[in-house]
Protein: L-aspartate oxidase
Amino acid sequence: MAPQAAPAPSFRHVLVLGAGLAGMRAAWAAKQAAPHLAVTLVSPRAAPCGSSFANRNNALGMQAPRPGEAEAFIREALALAAPGTVALELARALAQDAPVALSDLLSLGLAFRRKADGALARYPGCFSPPRRAVVFDDLGAAHGAFLARVRGLGVRLLHGFVALQITRDAAGRATGAWLAPLRDGEPVFLRADAVVAALGGPAPLFARRICGPGGSGLSFGLLRSAGTELVNARFLQFFWGHAADGGFVNPGALPWSLLAPELAHHAEARRGHCPLAYSLPDAALDRWLLARRGADGLAPLPGGAPLALFAHAGNGGARIDADGRTAVPGLYACGECAGGMHGAQRMGGGMALSALVFGARAGRAAALQPDQGGTALAGPPPAPAPGLDLRPERTFLPRLRRGMDRHAAPFAPQDRTRAAFIAWLRTQEEDAPSLRQRLLALSALCVLDAQ
Ligand SMILES: Cc1cc2nc3c(=O)[nH]c(=O)nc-3n(C[C@H](O)[C@H](O)[C@H](O)COP(=O)(O)OP(=O)(O)OC[C@H]3O[C@@H](n4cnc5c(N)ncnc54)[C@H](O)[C@@H]3O)c2cc1C
Structure:
């Protein structure tokens, strides 16, 4: 059957794609800013999924600088940027809104870790020694609390759909999205006056990954094909872990005096952060391990189990302004698919903060943007070619993921096999038989900085 267009709402409509921390907060803010608006929150699954609500730690840390700590927080964010970039106004927005983000979470009654006297416990974060981060446990309960909040405000929840195209009109404005059903049913077009992309990050593009389940890996491809610019897209956080079970291993804890005594002086600094650094001197340890990876991607250790590198979360995404606006009118981005507030490295707990801060800002700005009028009266756009089929070819995704493990790892050699992988991705982006496959190839090209 041909794809169908859902009935166009006769009043203004904000469409939020993705229901992690960023999407939930965006839908909440949009409905709170303009209660008369229709706000729809789309996610593939009703159950907790993604890195916000289904990560394997069952906990999230959040940077929560108090007003007196704002300047130090901003300085740290800027110092961690290279070789990526940080937009000062976005780092300022994080510092400025952090107290509000924390009180939002407290208002939901989340299970924050506390000291014996009841005060919030504060922790250092990766790359960030000051005790500024707060931590909450029980992500299933957090998901329930967010759902209750958005439902209570009147947000419409649409589960079971995956966005495969953000549409634009002749003037370049975002007009809605084509959604494909995860299981049975027909694709649907949802028209909207504003679209907020909260689609999560690029880690699902990798075979070895420790992101939460239910991510699509489509966010960069969707945003790029909608006309946005990406920033810092190649800087993902990677963790080392045991190849067998993915259990974390901090390279700083390895016996460097035996492995490579000339590098042992980096071990203490390396213990200060779990993700690999792109520009800090202690990356020498990670380079040493990477250079020993075999064709299977494993770095053998004398007398120990082999290590593998796991993609964890992206630090870049669509370039946004302080209100989550992309360069495409009517299209906003927030959370792990937005970039510019973190550089190549980010403070541990920085992503939960940015998902909440830019989720709230994007949702509010989308709801309050001037009414363009008329979109509800226009007919549905043509269904995209080559089709909204969600099943990728059997061999495509494993091949893409294996290639990403090898060629999108930090410091990967710019060799002929990488060039061949990029050439294959380009043909997939142009000619693959499904739109999803094309978008996955484009997402991968964005991470490889080769789109
Ligand atoms: C193990 C682990 C521990 C972490 N710990 C921390 C921490 O302590 N502090 C911190 O700051 N960060 C941490 N992170 C990173 C952080 O959890 C994520 O970066 C953050 O939660 C991302 O939020 P999000 O809302 O942008 O994305 P997600 O929570 O991943 O949500 C994305 C949503 O979009 C949906 N989606 C995806 N594609 C589509 C599509 N095409 N159409 C419709 N919906 C779609 C997904 O199903 C999901 O609902 C951790 C990550 C992991 C994996």
The CA atoms of residues 192 and 267 lie 52 Å apart. The mean pLDDT is 94. Residues 396-447 form one domain. The radius of gyration is 21 Å.
